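R.M. (postdoc): so does anyone remember the format we settled on? I'll just put the structure tokens first.
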């Protein structure tokens, strides 16, 4: 990264090397699959080999080797944790078209525009968000280590995958990570009571240590569902719950294909105005303010004469790292974090076979299972990756045998 306005010495995000993480005991029962995953069927491939393949594809598109590897890790996070709508299914549908069209610069070098120590304004310069967001959070962590808090406000970004992956970077350093991102100038969601789309799904994520337990990770769109899950349902020929989409008059729509036909619209968290839609709408605007208004990135809301849906270019992001150990004894913070999330796990459940968990726990269990036994790919996605490998002159990982994948020998 290059700087043009620095008031304090600055370090590259690459310099923020994660500290070693002590293996922790985790849940031994793998939870049910997240919505949109394949439920454990299909072809399982080794996680490390899948990472290498994705990195090779991105290197072939011009990304430097280390950044291609970083981007591959961010993209495969979705498949590892079960949120497959943000995994490698987007390699051919989103990221390669971004690179091939020139909307994303594979050799971009983000530039620090303003540097005040604890707060930094970064121009991503159309870099691939999968790695640029990771480096931005690492820079926020480096500043938090020095000042107690580090804020990196980003403009000129592109889609970065799962927000939770980048927030988790802070947890490696016993910090709290907050990530927000707007959808650039893309407008796909209507304000409450409005007839013209003005905002994106505007995701946010918070990750925090939980002692020796899996980290707390809240990773969410401010709409009821992200567009990726709607389109995944459409590709699978499945219907969606009536609370996800509505028509022009507010009636429920269960056909996910109606979304891309312009006959259905995403609903805000909370659903109807009388059941809390203003909360989701307000959270969407909160993300727009923090992510785009602060750094001067592309804003979604325009006047009523603007085109309904622009491209998700000039995305804005906020990367915030908070170091509690700079505010009070770190050992005390870790003890309290363990107590907080331990108390939740110890809450008596309504059903004995459904123990109380918190966001991040199921994903951690699923991730560890897939690292050990392979990442499952739906048959259609597996065929798509084989075609991509063939057309790219690369080898796709061979499937694991049932005994290797944890299934019956």
């Amino acid at each position: 990264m290059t700087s043009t306005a620095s008031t304090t010495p600055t370090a590259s995000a690459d310099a923020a090397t994660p500290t070693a993480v002590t293996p922790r005991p985790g849940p031994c029962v793998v939870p049910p699959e997240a919505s949109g995953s394949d439920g454990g069927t299909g072809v399982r491939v080794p996680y490390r080999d899948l990472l290498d393949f994705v990195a090779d594809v991105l290197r072939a598109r011009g990304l430097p080797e280390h950044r291609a590897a970083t981007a591959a890790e961010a993209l495969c996070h979705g498949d590892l944790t079960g949120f497959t709508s943000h995994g490698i299914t987007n390699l051919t549908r989103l990221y390669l078209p971004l690179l091939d069209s020139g909307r994303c610069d594979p050799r971009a070098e983000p530039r620090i525009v303003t540097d005040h120590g604890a707060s930094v304004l970064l121009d991503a310069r159309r870099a691939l968000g999968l790695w640029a967001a990771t480096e931005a959070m690492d820079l926020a962590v480096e500043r938090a280590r020095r000042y107690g808090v580090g804020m990196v406000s980003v403009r000129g970004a592109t889609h970065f995958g799962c927000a939770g992956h980048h927030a988790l970077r802070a947890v490696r350093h016993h910090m709290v990570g907050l990530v927000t991102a707007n959808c650039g100038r893309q407008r796909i969601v209507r304000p409450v009571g409005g007839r013209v789309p003005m905002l994106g799904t505007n995701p946010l994520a918070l990750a925090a240590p939980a002692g020796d337990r899996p980290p707390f990770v809240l990773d969410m769109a401010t709409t009821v569902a992200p567009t990726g899950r709607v389109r995944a349902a459409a590709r699978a020929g499945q219907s969606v719950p009536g609370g996800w989409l509505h028509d022009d008059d507010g009636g429920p729509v269960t056909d996910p294909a109606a979304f891309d036909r312009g006959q259905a619209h995403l609903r805000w968290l909370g659903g109807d105005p009388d059941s809390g839609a203003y909360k989701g709408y307000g959270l969407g605007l909160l993300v727009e303010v923090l992510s785009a208004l602060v750094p001067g990135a592309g804003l979604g809301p325009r006047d009523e004469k603007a085109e309904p849906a622009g491209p998700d270019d000039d995305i804005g992001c906020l990367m915030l790292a908070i170091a509690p150990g700079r505010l009070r004894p770190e050992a005390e913070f870790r003890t309290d974090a363990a107590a907080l999330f331990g108390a939740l796990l110890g809450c008596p459940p309504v059903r004995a076979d459904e123990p109380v968990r918190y966001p991040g726990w199921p994903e951690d269990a699923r991730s560890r299972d897939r690292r050990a036994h392979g990442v499952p790919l739906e048959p259609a996605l597996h065929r798509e990756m084989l075609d991509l490998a063939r057309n790219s002159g690369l080898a796709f990982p061979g499937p694991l045998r049932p005994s290797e994948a944890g299934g019956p020998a």
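R.M.: ...and that's the designed sequence above, right after the tokens. Also worth knowing: Residues 265 and 277 are 14 Å apart (CA to CA). Confidence is low (pLDDT under 50) at residues 3-40.
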